[in-house]
Amino acid sequence: MIKNITVEEALGIGSAVIVDVRSEEEYGDTTIPGAINVPLLNNEERARVGTVYKQVSPVDARKLGMELIAPKLVELVNTIEAKAAPGKKVILFCWRGGLRSQFVSYVLDLMGFDVYRINGGYKAYRRYVNAYLNESVLQHRAVVTHGLTGVGKTLVLRELLKMGMPVLDLEGLAVHRGSVYGKIGLPPSPGQKQFEALLFEELRRAEEKGVFLVECESRRLGRLLVPIPLMNAMKNGYRILLYTSLEVRIRRSIEEYTAGARDKDVVPQLLEATSALVRYLGNKKVEEINSYITQGQIDKAVELLLVEYYDPLYKYPDRPAPEYHISVDTTDIKSAADQIYKFVSALNEYNVPVSGGVPIGNWEGSKGSKGIKGDVPGNC
Q1: Which of 16, 30, 155, 335 has the greatest count of CB atoms below 10 A from its CB?
Q2: Which CATH entry fits the domain spanning 138-366: 2.30.29, 3.30.2400, 3.10.380, 3.40.50?
Q3: First and final C-alpha spacing in the chain
Q4: Which one from 94, 118, 214, 250 is the annotated catalytic residue?
Q5: What pTM value is reported for the model?
Q6: Sequence ranges of the domains in the chain
Q7: 16: Cβ–Cβ under 8 A, 6 or more apart, which residues?
Q8: Cα 351 to Cα 347: distance, rounded to the nearest angstrom
Q9: pLDDT-derived band at 366, boundaries 50, 70, 90
């Protein structure tokens, strides 16, 4: 039997294969994280059916669709069957919960699958994500790491993730590192909708813990924007300062941002990226940094970038500071992670499950009161 379900019900089904039956292009643009793509109509076929629908008639478009679909029905069923273990539920969706998911659900039901179909399709999922991220006050308590470039914020968070802590890796989800060299060697970033879908899934997963750990970031990550309620949660969260020596920071920055810098194919990208800092550092300083890069003296180039650009930009302390809830030396990443683990475990909010969020409400009617503001300038 086919069961039509809401987005919330779909998210509550633990063990299921989620199948996006839209075209490859639609799937590549944005989808429900974890969904596999089994297109009922591929890009070209979808375009052909759409043209007939507009220029001839809906009936002729459906006939063409059936003609295109019929030869590959067995392959479609086999593909889904290969992904779904015996007795495993299959959740289907298309763009708006229309004919594509309806047709595939009929076929799978006929073949004995336990079929669920999302009412409203991906469009309904997108509305749900948008309400969660952009129209609510997050109930989780954020634990935010701060520190100068190279202290190892990402390394510490990765270690904490291995220890079972709820970690929100903004740079990882955005496929963008906060550095002038941040995009070198990385694949393309997702679009804004997919970035938000990934954020939503991670925050939803962290609800049972009541808190999440995150690195302080500006609202903009490359061409992506962090939703305002998340920025507010970070701004009002627990503050952890990470610090270590300049020597360690130089070494870590080289490992993270300029890996392969001695590769002739990478050097031009480093030079181009550094040259973009002319308006901040001036021609002379940029030429000096690029000269070190060209000569293979990456350590000297990175030291200049840290001391002359990043440290004055972020202005974080390089030693323990009273304005933070805890200050942690990250010279040893494992030791630093252990200290933070103990700090988070002792928080009143830790392991107290929360719900998704509380609607922000009528902003125009309450903007004069204290509390959450409509936007967050700068970073956390």
Answers
A1: 30
A2: 3.40.50
A3: 49
A4: 94
A5: 0.89
A6: 3-129, 138-366
A7: 88, 89, 90, 91, 116
A8: 9
A9: very low
